[in-house]
Design goal:
alpha/beta, 12 strands, single chain, 19% strand, 5-stranded mixed sheet
Length: 318
């Protein structure tokens, strides 16, 4: 009785088939190549149809979908800021048209990441845990008393808008203060700003056009001892540590799991991030929390989506 987990990101769609025991059977990814609106919806349904065909003998029993942004549970529509045209996209209806009577469940990537880690990853056995996802953007999946915290309108966990620096600047409007400074895109933005402000710099980052600098370039320069890259990463460590301190003080979790594309290469900084959080957080709670790297890595989303699918048809013993 396999289930299908789908993880829709800003650049690709990953889909994986899981057994009822939670073992990954097969996985496939499709790049978006800049597609938008219904083109992306078409890629999702095509991928689902392919898995339905290839798994016809065993039969997929349920489908879970992880989406970047907001999954409006009441309407089945999706807001995804990094997919143009997905302001109120009717993804559930499109999938139901393809899947017929097979149950389809959609949730935010924030929820799916922590559900995946709670089911098969670093947060297994926890009733209170947070997944801090740092990739192109920043979000947090928050598990409280074994329940996903969703908020009044399914928007809880959008901590890219956490206010960690003042005064307010207009550049924070599109993505929020925290995300502006410490996401994957933020690392590149802050680096460009520092390079523009520095007149005497002649390091390795000067070999690349300013607009082409990426977070990967900054990590590479950091590894080679570049001063600007060091300044960027030191700033990120402060922001990550402050954000984690706020989450610890608010929610008193057992664990905070660091994941997303930036963690990755930033996993090495977790001890420094913890030291920064120690300065700011509630002093008792901060001694009781473990800050760990994701065990599922880039598969956290498909695991969480598969968990949603299984849970829709049977109780799951975690």
């Amino acid at each position: 009785m396999p289930v299908l987990g789908i993880d829709l990101g800003g650049t690709k769609i990953a889909a994986a088939l899981f057994s009822a025991a939670g073992d990954m059977i097969s996985k496939e990814s499709v790049a978006l190549h800049g597609k938008k609106g219904s083109e992306v919806g078409g890629l999702v349904t095509e991928l689902v149809e392919k898995f339905l065909r290839t798994s016809a003998e065993s039969g997929i029993t349920a489908i879970g979908v992880c989406v970047p942004g907001i999954s409006r549970i009441s309407s089945g529509t999706v807001w995804a800021p990094n997919i143009p045209g997905w302001d109120d996209y009717p993804l559930l209806k499109e999938l139901q048209d393809v899947c017929g009577s097979i149950p389809v469940v959609i949730d935010s990537d924030r929820a799916c990441y922590i559900l995946g880690e709670n089911w098969k990853g670093a947060a297994k056995g926890c009733s209170d845990a947070i997944y801090l996802s740092v990739g192109t953007g920043i979000g947090a999946g928050i598990l409280i008393n074994d329940t996903i915290l969703r908020g009044a309108h399914d928007i809880a966990g959008c901590i890219g808008w956490m206010a960690l620096d003042g005064p307010f600047k207009d550049k924070y409007i599109p993505c929020g203060c925290f995300e502006y400074h410490a996401s994957g895109e933020g690392i590149a933005k802050v680096c460009r700003e520092l390079l523009q402000e520095t007149t005497e710099y002649n390091g390795i980052l000067s070999d690349k056009a300013l607009d082409d600098i990426t977070a990967a370039d900054v990590f590479s320069a950091y590894d080679q001892g570049d001063g600007i890259a060091r300044e960027v990463m030191d700033q990120c460590i402060r922001f990550w540590g402050m954000a984690i301190a706020n989450l610890i003080s608010l929610f008193n979790p057992e664990k905070i799991i660091m994941g997303g594309g930036v963690f990755g290469p930033a996993a090495r900084f977790i001890p420094e991030i913890k030291a920064e959080a120690d300065k700011w957080a509630q002093p008792i709670s901060v001694t009781q929390v473990s800050i760990e790297h994701s065990r599922l890595g880039g598969d956290a989303g498909v695991y969480g989506a598969a968990y949603l699918a299984l849970k829709s048809i049977k109780p799951i013993d975690k």
